[in-house]
Design brief:
heterodimer; A: 348 residues; mainly alpha; ABC transporter involved in vitamin B12 uptake, BtuC; 18 helices; globular; disordered N terminus; B: 346 residues; two-stranded antiparallel sheet; 14 helices; 2 strands; disordered C terminus
């Protein structure tokens, strides 16, 4: 917020200044908007317009959006939601079941995938609300472990409800766009979701809610002493983060068209998102988003050139996360702010 | 003798003063009787064998949390390393035994595997402490518990995927350690492997208990778990205590992995289930409560065996965790309580 104020002061008057402050109101900077526009036209430009490249971009946007929603909890109220992947999987399965037309499952509601995605978000939000209430009294490690246990339970439940989910065999929800085999429409859907999630969560964190979140995250007792009601804010935070996780899960279901508990809801999926969010910088939300794209491209490139090395990208993820956590806990966004400050103090 | 009376007194004290613990233990006893009546003696023995192993794993977890304040998420990977080492040591010996039978070596070979696993586990633990936690300790000012937790998450991630990368996801298992007929105890058949696994767990826990109680070094470890600054003031070398604790915890987990190789096999993600069952135990007993973890191990194993008996094996992932969520809601600091520094840290 102070940063916004200095921005306004610096940019002063003029069209540019007004544009910057208008963007600032929705949590964007000119640089950020430029990058997003670049990303939006990227799949139309030749080297990136190949189908497999668009698929990578979709993966990148999917992970980026997850990192934003995850960081909203981890970076602000300082509770690591270890069941994040399970909540996302819950959204995916809800949407998959509601859109199902396959007679081998117990019910065939056959709804539109768009409605399914919204319902997935709703169900994930309700469970997120419950998780927020459950972790309310718990701090730090206890809250993380509670979320982890809930995640394990959800995954086990999914595996056991064979009538609805076909258990470990996995189910195959129908695709979002039936008429086309192109990945391009999917890219714009996930791109839109990513921008939506970022803008909504940024608006929330820029309001007094964001301040309350940060206060609770830094010191719960002090926040309570200064009149902040932690119950309301923590539950709200969890619910919002999980709504978006469920929405993304719905997208996953109708893009990949294949859901198994192991590939979707396992704790290691949460760890992937956690690693991105932390490498990008805690409490920035844009850090994880920015890191996701080069990551996916680097990893997919490695994977396609060294086919017989399964798990290499995971090792790189893990090592990078460890190094960042020990030696540079502020992550990429911390580096950016440090650099900005350096440059400003020099020019001043 | 003195030890055993103080242990009994400790348990009695907890029973009379602690309602949640009394309730949980009473319910467990009832469940045990029901399980014995429905499932027979074999399920009761199953509970004890699994319980011994969860207790061994949980004691390591509790020790690491109590002394170093590290909520250890890579404990399952220590288990995995132990399983691999035991396989790599035991299998060649087993192959040679096929060509040159040797009755003595046949009996001793598994123990060589166990010992190797424990030694390698200790070394891995020491290295992890030095490479991962020592630098973090020098740099972290606040939020140590959470940072350490996330760091072990990263370690677990790197180790599982590193093993997949290096040697592939294949299962490496053995049918059994000892080629002896199953023994019959009170009408239930139990393999020699299970009996050895149980006694190995009990002996290791007892040895650890004696070490912590009776030796100078053990007392130093307990002193650090009670008051770090005070321990440093009286001249205890903190770094040495951390290294030793982490090495011991990793070694016990590796030993558990080695002695259960006949049940679990060795593959990169084998540590998942032992990890979360060990975590159920420490959350039930109270984070960092070493003595509570022993009893907790058996309670969680009982819950697990009863779930298998009454609902089928696939519900093992749902019902115990649901019960643990209830426990966490009711008594977040566990039924035996955890009075460890840093637990309430944000």
């Amino acid at each position: 917020m102070t940063e916004n104020a200095t921005n306004e002061k610096k940019n002063g008057a003029g069209v540019w200044g007004r544009l910057t402050s208008a963007l600032g109101a929705v949590g964007m900077t000119p640089l950020g908007v430029g990058l997003l526009i670049l990303l939006a036209i990227l799949p139309l430009v030749p080297p990136f317009s190949q189908e497999h490249m668009i698929r990578w971009l979709i993966m990148g946007a999917f992970l980026a959006a997850q990192a934003i929603a995850f960081d909203f909890t981890a970076g602000y109220i300082n509770v690591v939601n270890f069941g994040f992947a399970a909540i996302l999987g819950l959204g995916a399965y809800t949407s998959g079941i509601l859109t199902n037309t396959n007679p081998s499952l117990a019910i065939q509601p056959g709804l539109s995938p768009w409605i399914g995605m919204l319902a997935g978000a709703l169900v994930a939000g309700i469970v997120g609300f419950g998780l927020g209430v459950l972790t309310l009294r718990l701090r730090g490690i206890f809250a993380a472990v509670m979320a982890w246990f809930v995640g394990i339970g959800l995954m086990g439940l999914t595996r056991n409800m064979v009538d609805l989910t076909r258990g470990p065999l996995g189910m195959a929800p129908r695709k979002l766009f039936l008429g086309t085999t192109s990945n391009l429409p999917y890219f714009y859907v996930i791109f839109g979701m990513m921008v939506l999630i970022y803008v909504v969560l940024r608006l929330v964190t820029k309001s007094h809610y964001g301040l309350a979140f940060k206060a609770i995250g830094q010191n719960l007792d002090a926040a309570r002493a200064s009149g902040i009601n932690p119950t309301k804010y923590r539950v709200l935070n969890f619910t919002l983060s999980c709504v978006f996780a469920g929405l993304l899960g719905g997208f996953y279901a109708h893009y990949f068209g294949s859901l198994t508990p192991q590939t979707l809801m396992h704790t290691s999926k949460t760890v992937e998102v956690l690693a991105l969010a932390y490498i990008g910088g805690r409490g920035s939300m844009w850090g994880g988003m920015l890191v996701a794209f080069p990551f996916v491209f680097g990893i997919e490139y490695l994977r396609s050139s060294l086919t017989d090395l399964p798990g290499l990208h995971m090792v790189l993820y893990g090592v990078l996360m460890i190094v960042v956590m020990i030696f540079y806990p502020n992550g990429l966004s911390g580096f950016y702010y440090w650099l900005k400050e350096k440059i400003q103090s020099k020019s001043a | 003798m003195k030890e055993s009376t103080s242990f009994t007194r400790f348990i009695m004290n907890k029973l009379t003063r602690n309602l949640p613990a009394t309730v949980v233990i009473a319910l467990s006893l009832v469940l045990m009787v029901v399980l014995g009546a429905v499932g027979g003696m074999s399920q009761v023995l199953n509970t004890f064998v699994t319980g011994g192993m969860w207790a061994l794993l949980a004691v390591g977890l509790a020790l690491v949390f109590g002394v170093m304040n590290v909520p250890h998420f890579a404990h399952g990977e220590s288990f995995m390393i132990g399983a691999y080492v035991a396989y790599w040591v035991f299998n060649p010996i087993y192959q040679t035994l096929g060509e040159h039978p040797n009755a003595f070596l046949e009996v001793v070979a598994p123990f060589i595997g166990f010992l190797a696993a424990a030694v390698v586990g200790f070394v891995v633990g020491v290295l992890l402490e030095r490479i991962i936690f020592a630098p973090l300790r020098r740099r972290t000012k606040s939020g140590w518990v959470m940072n350490a937790f996330l760091l072990t998450v990263g370690v677990s991630f790197v180790l599982t995927n590193g093993f997949t990368l290096a040697i592939g996801p294949n299962f490496r298992g053995i049918p059994r350690y000892w080629n002896i007929d199953t023994l019959t105890i009170l009408g239930a058949n139990v393999s020699a492997d299970r009996i050895v696994a149980f006694f190995l767990a009990m002996i290791t826990i007892f040895a650890l208990w004696l070490f912590l109680r009776q030796t100078r070094t053990g007392r130093a470890i307990r002193a650090v778990s009670q008051d770090e600054t005070g321990a440093e003031l009286v001249g205890i070398n903190l770094d040495f205590v951390y290294v030793l604790t982490f090495g011991l915890a990793t070694a016990t987990a590796a030993l558990a992995g080695a002695s259960l190789l006949f049940m679990f096999q060795a593959y990169p993600t084998v540590g998942g289930k032992p990890l979360y069952f060990a975590w159920y135990v420490v959350m039930l007993a109270g984070l960092g409560n070493v003595a509570g973890a022993i009893l907790g191990g058996f309670i969680v194993a009982l819950l697990q065996t009863a779930t298998q008996q009454f609902f089928g094996p696939s519900w093992e992932d749902v019902i115990p965790v649901a019960v643990m969520i209830l426990v966490l809601i009711a008594v977040p600091s566990g039924i035996f309580g955890s009075e460890v520094k840093g637990v309430q840290e944000q």
